[in-house]
Amino acid sequence: MSNAEKDPTAVVCEPGSGAGDAVPRVEVLTPRDVPLGGPRAMTVRRTLPQRARSLIGAWCFADHYGPDDVATTGGMDVAPHPHTGLQTVSWLFTGEIEHRDSLGTHAYVRPGELNLMTSGRGISHSEVSTPATSTLHGVQLWVALPESARDTAPAFQHYAPTPVHVSGAELRVFLGTLAGDTSPVPTFTPLLGAEILLPPRATLTLPLDPAFEHGLLVDAGPVRLADTLLNRSDLGHLPEGTPTLTLTNESDATARTILLGGTPFGEPVLMWWNFVGRTTQDITQARTDWMTGDRFGEVKGYDGASLPAPELPNVPLKPRGNVR
Ligand code: MN
Predict the structure, then answer these.
(1) What does each C-alpha distance from 168 to 196, 197, 225, 230 come to in angstroms?
(2) Tens of pLDDT, residues 114-156
(3) How far is the CA of 94 from the centre of ligand 1 (A)?
(4) Could you say which of 23, 87, 218, 235 has the lowest number of CB atoms within 10 Å?
């Protein structure tokens, strides 16, 4: 997915602080609506980055969307666009998305299947919901690459986790380890990503890695995280040092959440549009390379023009109200 903001904010992402409180201190990050662009403008609910917090582990971007009736929203049609310094994680609950990238990958994103694209130094891709899709519902997440890996070779990986069942809950661990299940997909920093389905009114307790901070994104709820109520599209943050996840479904339907985690990233990064860099020079070079160069290759098979980069604000890029 592409950040479709007309005037994307430059974001300096710095790690937050955390403490091992006996009762987990949950910070509630509420979403803002962002239209993806296009004539009918499918809208996503973004919880990362935001003023209060820009990173959870290496997770630096979290969009939640749907369930959308594609006949109304027009579905997803994101023309070829570039990425640097990050990985994109596409995870669907309903629907199907056709992915094409400059490596020549042609893949379908389907519910319950991880599609992980590593931009490394540069990749471009398009994402289009398929004609078979009537309802589109899922998340788009980005992972910042650490300095040691941000110029790594671009790559694309697919993994369909086998669901695991823990005291009535159903878990799909797509990155990292949870409840004894481990994803085989390697990561560049310690990470966790898992979908959790929880029966009506049920409570789930799971051990967490205390070296991680965590974020719980609510798709269907409300749910109670420790003693804090989280509504749909809220992202509840648990600081590092939290030993246990205690999650209660406060509804009479199945609750669905995405649990994200990772060790605090420890490197400030600069995000602008679809790029993660370290300096203004990184960003301006990436923009120039997209508009005029061949760094990002070519997406074959997409019917239409590529997305132009937005205009850069006056350099140097400055954070606008998103510093901790
Ligand atoms: Mn994208």
Answers:
(1) 11, 9, 17, 20
(2) 999 999 999 999 999 999 999 999 999 999 999 999 999 999 9
(3) 19
(4) 23
Percent of the chain clearing pLDDT 70 (strictly above): 93
How far apart CA 188 and CA 250 sit, in angstroms, is 36
R_g of the chain, CA atoms, integer Å: 19
CA of 82 to the centre of ligand 1 (A): 7
- The alpha carbon of 165 and the centre of ligand 1 are apart by a number of angstroms equal to 32
Distances in Å between the alpha carbon of 282 and those of 27, 60, 142, 148, 270? 32, 17, 18, 15, 9
Burial (0-12, 13-18, 19+ Cβ within 10 Å), 259: buried
Instruction: Identify how many contiguous H helices and E strands the chain contains and give both numbers.
Output: 2, 27
Q: Which residues contact 9 (CB under 8 A, 6 or more apart)?
A: 272, 319, 320, 322
- How confident is residue 10, by pLDDT bands cut at 50, 70 and 90? confident
- Other Cβ atoms within 10 Å of 96 Cβ, number: 16
Whether residue 14 is predicted with pLDDT greater than 80 in this model: the reply is no
Cα gap 92→311, rounded to integer Å: 31
- Give me the pLDDT at residue 324, please: 40
Give me the residues near ligand 1 (ion), CB cutoff below 5 Å. 1-2
User: What are the respective helix, strand and coil percentages of the chain, to the nearest 5?
Assistant: 5, 45, 50
Exposure of 188 by Cβ count < 10 A (0-12 exposed, 13-18 middle, 19+ buried)?
middle
Tokens of 143: 């992972």
Q: Count the neighbouring beta carbons within 10 Å of the beta carbon of residue 1.
A: 22
CATH code that applies to domain 18-292: 2.60.120.10
Stretch (H or E) spanning 292 = helix 280-292
